[in-house]
Amino acid sequence: MNKTRPPLDILLCAPRGFCAGVDRAIQIVELALKTYGAPVYVRHEIVHNKFVVEGLKAKGAIFVEELDEIPQTSQPVIFSAHGVPKSVPEDAKAKNFFYLDATCPLVSKVHKEAVLHDRRGHEVLLIGHAGHPEVIGTMGQLADKVVTLIETVEDVESLEPKDPDNLAWITQTTLSVDDTADIVAALQRRFPNIKGPNKDDICYATTNRQEAVKRVAPRADVMIVVGAPNSSNSKRLREVGERAGCRQSILLQRATDIDWDSLGDISSVAITAGASAPEILVEEVIDAFSTHYDVTVEVITIAQEDMVFNIPRELREAAIAKGVLEAGPIAEPVK
Ligand code: SF4
User: d(Cα 93, Cα 87) in Å, to the nearest integer?
Assistant: First the structure.
């Protein structure tokens, strides 16, 4: 052991990293490649992680932003885990594409809430971040301009609904639990008759990862969130770490992004990963710290997760028929 390395406690948050929706989306692309051969086309990054996307590209996936970029083909076209506006499957049908939908079932649940509220005649408010693909997909479940986006408490204060007694709210699944609670409280204060889910639509994975960071961050000098800069839940984890009192809360994609000089004099580091970041990248970060410090790793677990989502029936049946998936259990446990 190199005695010159200073000691460092690594506090590893659990749960961290892949959620059931991400695991399912990646399984869909991989299984589609095995079943139908390359290429398969994927609209938007299947999940927001460059490492995952590059790995799938190497296996034969072609990523596009819009269906117009795909030539006429009988190969599968897959929609990302974030969900798509209704117009996208309609367009795919019009183009005669064979498509598979990897939208996370927890995002689909929010889509259904939007449609149901609209059918009941409620004006729908979506709490979320402008421009995020999930928000574009959820707003696109209803006609243009029917859903109003609420990003802040200030948006609630300046809202001028058609009928203040006939409103309903839904949320993006990967928001800050605390910020959303403030926005919901403001909505309920201004519009006491507003309808909504029991608590919010933030998913179990987002909630658990934020809760773990809240628990661990006050014990650490630095919080490291492994995740992509365009990953909503990863960005929220970094903010939660900062608010929980960490001197530095850093979002990085790979161990090579660590700026060792800027870490300063530290004795503890908390590490977590966004829901789209694979565990191998967390291991890479731990290994990198091990080369600079004499590390001790402590895992802090705040919840057990056993959520598993089934892959689309059409793909499962084709994969079984092709012999690349065994008949029997319809979903693999999330690793
Ligand atoms: Fe689904 Fe939540 Fe994972 Fe998004 S973060 S894919 S909503 S489980």
Answer: 10
